[in-house]
Amino acid sequence: MDNITLSDENLKILCDLTTEAHTRIQQDFNDINPVVGVSKKMRDIGIPADAMTIDCLKTGKRIIIILHDQQPNIVNYQLSFRDKDPDELFEQLQFNELTAQRMYDWIRDYFQTNK
């Protein structure tokens, strides 16, 4: 039960960080308008994890963030594309190292086009 509570709390924190980063991105960049989604569908197929996607419709790029119940202190993430399946290998980051600024940097750096 504690893992479920911790997982839910981590997902709430992730959503709060993303909301802050998203708001700042929209204030700072006219050409980046991320679309954020949260899914618990992995649980429906027996994987105890939640996923967040941050998409850039203009570039087709996607940031995938996975929170696994068995690794509550780890964030798995991948910079990918909306129209491609994700790679099997994800980068890892300590959950407490994930900040709104880091999320902002990921979105800015990955989604920005070369205009």
Characterization of the model:
By secondary structure, this protein is of the alpha+beta class. The chain has one domain (2-111). The chain has 3 helices and 5 strands; from the N terminus they run H-E-H-E-E-E-E-H. It has a 5-stranded antiparallel beta sheet. Helix 1 crosses helix 3. The radius of gyration is 14 Å and the shape is globular.
Taking all residues together, what is the mean pLDDT? 92
* Helix-strand pattern: HEHEEEEH
| Termini Cα gap | 49 Å
Number of separate strands: 5
Please indicate the percent range of residues in DSSP E strands (runs of 2 or more).
25-35%
Apparent shape: globular
- Major sheet: 5 strands, antiparallel
- Secondary-structure-based class equals alpha+beta
Order of strands, main sheet, comes to 1-2-3-4-5
Domains (count): 1
Instruction: Supply the number of helical segments.
Output: 3
User: Into which percent range does the helicity of residues fall?
Assistant: 25-40%
- What's the Cα radius of gyration? 14 Å
* Low-pLDDT runs: none
What is the compact description of this entry?
By secondary structure, the chain is of the alpha+beta class. Helices cover 37% and strands 29% of the residues. It contains three helices and five strands; from the N terminus they run H-E-H-E-E-E-E-H.
Write out key terms for the chains shown.
alpha+beta, 5 strands, five-stranded antiparallel β-sheet, 115 residues, globular, 37% helix
